[in-house]
Every structure is written in structure tokens, then in C-alpha cells.
UniProtKB/TrEMBL annotation:
One of its GO terms (cellular component) is peroxisome. Residues 1-96 form the ACB domain. Keywords: Acyltransferase, Transferase. This is Carnitine O-octanoyltransferase.
Amino acid sequence: VFNQADFEKMAEDVKKVKSRPEDKELLELYGLYKQATVGDNHIDKPGLFNPKADAKWEAWNSRKGRRSIFASAMAFKMIEFIQLHNFKKLVSSICHRKGLYKRTEEQISWSYELFQQEQFRRDLLFKSIFQSTSVSQLILNWSWETKVFFRESLITPPFGVNHHKVLMCNWKAVQYPNNSKTKRILKNKSSCLTLHVTYLRCLHFNWKHAIFSLTEEIRNLTEEQYMGKVAQHEKVLWKERQHTFEVLLCGNHILSPSEVIMQITYIRERCTSQPDGAGVSALTTEERTCWAKAREHLIELDPNNGAILEAIQSSLFIVSLDEARPFSTPENYTEMILQALTGDPTARWGDKSYNIICFADGTFGSNCDHAPYDAMVLVSMCYYIDQKLKASEGRWKGSVAAREIPPPEELVFTVDQKAQADIALAKQRYRESGRRELRCMWWVVDRAGRVFFLTRTEDFLLQPRFHSNACKHFGHTSCTNFIPQNATTRRFYHGRTETMRPCTLEALEWCKAMLDPSVNTETKRKCLLIAVAKHNKLMNEAQNGKGFDRHLLGLYLIAKGEGLPVPELYQDPAYSKSGGGGNFVLSTSLVGYTTVLGAVVPMVHHGYGFFYRIRDDRIVVSCTAWKSCPETDAEKLYQNLTTSFQEMLQLMTLSQL
């Protein structure tokens, strides 16, 4: 029987350990950890629901005696680069033009305040995302901004539309922004560091505004609006129609699940009894210039169309009722990700920051504009929803009473022959460029996970394995400079991500050793340890704002924004070959240790998108590639990955690493 006093005593003893804990201590603590996560607390981080379990988790997690590190100002790093590249005078002039206060040489904090100015950040940072309007919105969204996530615990629902899961998922999604601003959800953390919650606000209310012949911009509601001083509503897309209803009534009271299901049922019955609508949402999947022209035409055709567009854009999020039934199992999510990425274009609004997709078999996915926030923000919300649904078994167990509330309002666009032709063309292009072109694979690697890697620093051992896999797949050892990994910088205010480049000389030496049959196990083990140590060091530096990719991006955008010649560095072929300018061939990312996983298309046509999550007993991997590229083969990449993984298991077992 678990004894709280014994657990606390052991946790306090281990806190004092300065070196690596012994295997016996780790095993004993892991046994206590398992006791802390059984029954009602059977989730990755039980503190999400139970304060007592939270105390157990924190005590267990503190076994290495790590201290909390508080985020500090990151201005000094940007200042160093600005001064190094003679941009100080330029930025000073921008400060003056933007109306900022004058700063002296000693008061160097001016650059930090400069980058905090909302309009300045939009002018520079967002211009990089939208500087090319010739790229299809489909490709742009997938390559850079769209993430698709699923909940594995909801993968085996009963056949048919599951109203209870739809309403519960909807209800929890509405609750999340309110709970995040009132600090009633678990803090986001990376290792022992608390991450800033600024981007949680960007999950809702955000949209991308297409402006013909002008730079696009991302818009969001003000802080006062976000804090609930305006009405909040959501949009439901089904049968090529758009409906809206208020989810926050007078007094900031969120609709109950019974009231939400009443609204959803009304929409379904209304759409079923009428023909399909115009399907205007398909236009948001178009190339940006085409969508901007079509948008202007709709507004010119009828001013009410402009009001409808504004209502959709300012909504909390989009609920997409999709009639597809993607066959998926805990070992194979391929069909679900393809449906979320290449499904019905009339059931997605491409410019919104969050589209929750409710499939007809009761499973869920999402298709989102990723520009306003990093992926882990969406992972946080999806995991929150998943755990709440699991705790309630996907059913509302409270009162079924419902208040008298206004029924949903249908938003009917006025369309003419030209608008109908634009919509038909958008649907055709979307379908031709989607399922026919995209290759997606989803694998589960059993017999490994957090338990196996408990004493082996988890991701730091997985990344070298990807290097070995890439060397085998591409046929040479020089390919490792193609591989990037994201490092979160959300410990800083307005921090997002930094590119961590694991393609080190140490990793290359280990890859060569693994490919050389004459090298013994002990030498391979030493090379692996050296590569892991270097990876760990670089990841910590990137998370602390000491990377260089984002700084180079900032300098590039300043030059472009002021009409200056682009520095020669950015035009050097070696810059692109090393991944600069978004040219990484094998893009990898760890998306956490939850039930949530995402997928993105490759950054280049001849590349791969490779993303993974680590569970207690397995590693789940998603891989994307383009069918039209003869150089890529997702299945072959998986086979090489499996071989590399088995070699890693053997090396770690024989060497007792």
C-alpha cells in the first residue's frame, strides 16, 4: 500500500543527490510514480485534475535536484547581432519613426522595447510568412502553418455520429481560453522551466486577413476583448453552410453541454432538410492572390458578405462537422491524418487559427493556421480536452436542463455566377493538390518509450538515431546537415521557437561508427555518449535564446523592410544547402509525451516531414512526403528507421547505457 510519508521522505533524499541517481533509487521512485498515476490519476501528469497527485508528481520529478530558472530579458542577444551587422543606426531610425522614446547608448533596452511593439513585430516577422503571394494557400498552410492533431484515446468510437463526444469536445474547447486566462489549467513546462502563456490567447480569435496586392496580416482581438468584455461566438460548418451561435451569454456564463448539443442538433436538422450551401469556405484553400480577389468580389457583390466574413473571422474557433469516417487504430492513424489534411474543403476555414474537426465516427482532428503560435500551444489545449473527455468517458453526466437561448443563425452568402465558378475551381485545385500528391505514413514503434528511456535522456538518444537513419536512407553521411529540430523559447515573453541543429561533427562521427562493421560496440557507445552530450548542450543553448537562425531571420527582415540590399550571406548556396531560408530536407520535431501528435508536409519538395511523440511504452511517428518527387520514399525511410532503432536498442542493452 502506498505510504505518503515514505514517498515524501524518499523524494527529499533524492533531491539532495547532486550526481546521477543510482538505478535502485530510480527503480524505487518509478514504482512510487506508478502508484501515483493509477486509478483516477491515470494520466501523464495527474496534477491536471488532482492537487494531491500533483504533489506526488512534482516530488517524483524533482529526483535530480533541479532548480527553477526564471526567464530574463533576451535583448542583449539581439543587440549583439544588430551591432555586429551595423544595423543599430537603422533600428534607431525605425524607433524614431515608430514614435518610441529616445534611448541613449547606455540604455540599450530600447531594442527590446522595439521588438515588443505589436505593429513593428507584424511589419517584420509576418512579412516573412506572407512575402510570396504566388504560393498556393494549400501548400503554404501545410508547409509552414498547418498542424493536424488527434486524440488516441478516442480512436475506437461507436459507429455513427457521437453527439456526446461532439458536445463535450466543443464544451472543453470553449472552456480552455477562459481557464487559461484565469490560470485554472496546469502551467506549460519544458523540463523544469515554466513557459509563458502569451500564445495561448492566439489559439482563439485569430485569423489571417488576405489583402490583394498588399502584405497580409494576422489579426486578433485586443486584450480587453480577450478578457471577455465582448460577446463570444463560434461557427459551425456543415453541408457547405455556415451557422453561428453565442457560447458566452450575459454574465460570461458558458453554455452547458446540454445547451451546446441542442444548438448542434438544430444545425444538423436544419442542414439535413435543405440542399447544400454555396461552400464559400473552399475559397480559403486557394492561392492567396486568388482568395484575396474572390474576397473583394464577395464584398463588392453584397455588403452583407463583408459582415459575414468579419463574423467568421472574429469567432472563437470553427467547428467542422465532417461526414468522413477515417478508419484508424492505435497502431495506424494514416487515414485520419489524410482526412484532416485533404478532407472536405468546405468544412475548413483556412484562415482561422483553430478548426476542430468532428468526424462522423466520433473521432476528432484539427486543421489550423499555425502562423499565430507554435505547435506546443495547440498540443497543450488538445491534451487538456483529451484528458477531460477521458475522465468523463466522453459523456456529460451533469444536468440535462437547458435554458431558453436563441437558436443558431445561418450565415448565407450572396453569390453570383463568378463566385460559384471561383468556388468550384478552388474545390478542384484542393482535391487535385491534396490526396493525390501527399504521401503520409504513421507508425508505432513498440517496446520503447518513456519507461525504456527513463535513465537515458529520451529525446537526446532519439535524435542521433534519426541521423543514423538518414545516413542509411540517403546513402551518405553528409546528409545530416539537412536535419533541424525545434527548441521552444516560450520561457521568454513573446518567445516561440528556435532552430536547434543536431547535425554536429560528433553526431556525424557516431553515424560513421554505426555504419562501419569493423568498429566495436564500446567505441560506438563512446561516440554515442559524446554525440548525446553535444546535442544536450546545443538544445539548452537554443532554448535560452542563444541560437542564430531567428536572429538571422530578424536581420533579413529588417533589410527587406527598409528596402536595403539583401546581405550576401542569404544568397550563398551554402546557406540554402544548410537549411537556411526554410530549406531543410528532413524536418523533425518532438511534440511531447502526451496522446497528441501532429503532422506537417515537407519544407521542400524533395524532403520529409518527420514528427514523433514518446509514450510510456511506445514511440509514435508521423512522416509526410510528396508522391510527385521520385527521390522520396516514406516507406523506405520507415524501414531504415526500424533498422536503426533495433541497432540502438542492441547498443544500449549490450553496453548497459
